[in-house]
Design brief:
Largest sheet: none
Structural class: mainly alpha
Order of helices and strands: HHHH
Radius of gyration: 18 Å
Number of strands: 0
Strand content: under 5%
Distance between the termini: 15 Å
Shape: elongated
Amino acid sequence: MLTLEQMARVGREKLAARAPAMARNWDAAKGDMKAGYDATPFNALRKQNYKDGIDRAKYRPPDPDKWARSWTRKMG
C-alpha cells in the first residue's frame, strides 16, 4: 500500500500532466459560456458585460505543489 506522501506525489504528477489540457479546455469553453449566458432572460447590457468579462479573464493554472501540500494535510 502507498503511503500518504506517495499518494500525494502521484496526484501531484497527474495534476501537473493535466495542466496544459486544462488551459486549452478552459479557453475552448469560452464560447459555450457566452452562449449559455445568452440564453438567460437577463438584459442585453448584463449579457454584454458578462461576455466582456469572459474575454478579459485569464486562465490561472493550478499549483501542483500547493495541491499536494493541501491534500496531504487534509487526508493525514
